[in-house]
Amino acid sequence: MSARPQPVLRVDDRFALRPWTVEDIPALVAAYADRDIQHWNLSSFDEAEAAEVIVKWNNQWMLETGASWAIARTSDDFAIGRIGLRVMNLASGVAEISYWVAPRARGVGAAPLATAAISTWLLGDLGLHRLELGHSVHNPASCRVAIKAGYPPEGTMKSALLHLDGWHDMHWHARVDHVVA
Ligand SMILES: CC(C)(COP(=O)(O)OP(=O)(O)OC[C@H]1O[C@@H](n2cnc3c(N)ncnc32)[C@H](O)[C@@H]1OP(=O)(O)O)[C@@H](O)C(=O)NCCC(=O)NCCS
Questions:
Q1: Pocket-forming residues, ligand 1, beta carbon under 6 Å
Q2: What is the pLDDT of residues 140-178, one digit of tens each?
Q3: Which long-range contacts (CB under 8 A, 24 or more apart) does 49-53 make?
Q4: pTM above 0.90, yes or no
Q5: Among 135, 151, 15, 5, which residue's Cα sits nearest to residue 75?
Q6: Pick from 80, 76, 135, 70: which is nearest to 102 by CA?
Q7: pLDDT in tens, 24-60
Q8: How far is the CA of 24 from the centre of ligand 1 (A)?
Q9: Which residues pair with 170 in a beta bridge?
Q10: Residue with CA nearest ligand 1 atom 5
Q11: Is-contact 101 110, C-beta < 8 A?
């Protein structure tokens, strides 16, 4: 994985996935000021923290511990969202996907299309076997993203992730490259 550069991937005519750069700091700070992103993705950043997290995300690729792509508008390369691998284990071929889309870019399919595009690349080119995705049972929009991106539900994990308002049950979804008997 680290032997090659983190790829730029086409999503559709409107969006592409690319590594983060320092040019994205204002977009990142603005996005994480959104209450829903803070609530569901469990973070907020000022400019210094955004700069640090971009270094961290890009280092994950080199360390083979994860990865993060900006969902960028092809018209002006502006970062309107993020697709990340929260957890990745190359030896077992498993990774966990996370995402957000900035408020003004929601509702046009950016998250499910970007998730589908990265999933095709992860299962095909990178050779992972199983991709997982979890969301709070109180986040139905994220459930729709998972279903539309080809991640069928597998079940509910009780009290599995601590949010600002307490522990949430989590819906678990997964997509595999093929079913082994
Ligand atoms: C969830 C999120 C990533 C969706 O991104 P998006 O690019 O707007 O996704 P879509 O354009 O496919 O629209 C969301 C889907 O959820 C549906 N949806 C939105 N709000 C909903 C709600 N309250 N209840 C049920 N469905 C809802 C929409 O109708 C749409 O589904 P449809 O195409 O079947 O109509 C985005 O809203 C977001 O970043 N939210 C805040 C952070 C977050 O939730 N991150 C995920 C953490 S697991």
A1: 36-37, 40-41, 99-101, 106-112, 135, 139-142, 144-145, 148
A2: 999 999 999 999 999 999 999 999 899 999 999 999 987
A3: 50/24, 50/25, 51/22, 51/25, 53/28
A4: yes
A5: 15
A6: 80
A7: 999 999 999 999 999 998 888 899 999 999 999 999 9
A8: 23
A9: 136, 157
A10: 111
A11: yes
CATH classification number, 9-176, choose in 3.40.50.12780, 3.40.50.300, 3.90.1200.10, 3.40.630.30: 3.40.630.30
pLDDT of 132 higher than 80: yes
How many Å lie between the centroid of ligand 1 and the Cα of residue 181? 34
What the block records as the tokens of 78 is 């502006």
In this model, does residue 181 exceed pLDDT 80?
no
CA of 20 to the centre of ligand 1 (A): 23
Q: Are 163 and 39 in contact (CB under 8 A)?
A: yes
Q: How is residue 76 annotated by DSSP?
A: T
pLDDT at 110: 98
Atom of ligand 1 nearest to the CA of 111: 7
Q: Residue 140 and residue 159: Cα distance in Å, rounded? A: 17
Q: Point out the ligand 1 atom lying closest to the alpha carbon of residue 41.
A: 47
Q: Which residues pair with 161 in a beta bridge?
A: 168
Ligand 1 atom at shortest distance from the alpha carbon of 139: 44
What span, in angstroms and rounded, lies between the C-alpha atoms of 153 and 70? 26
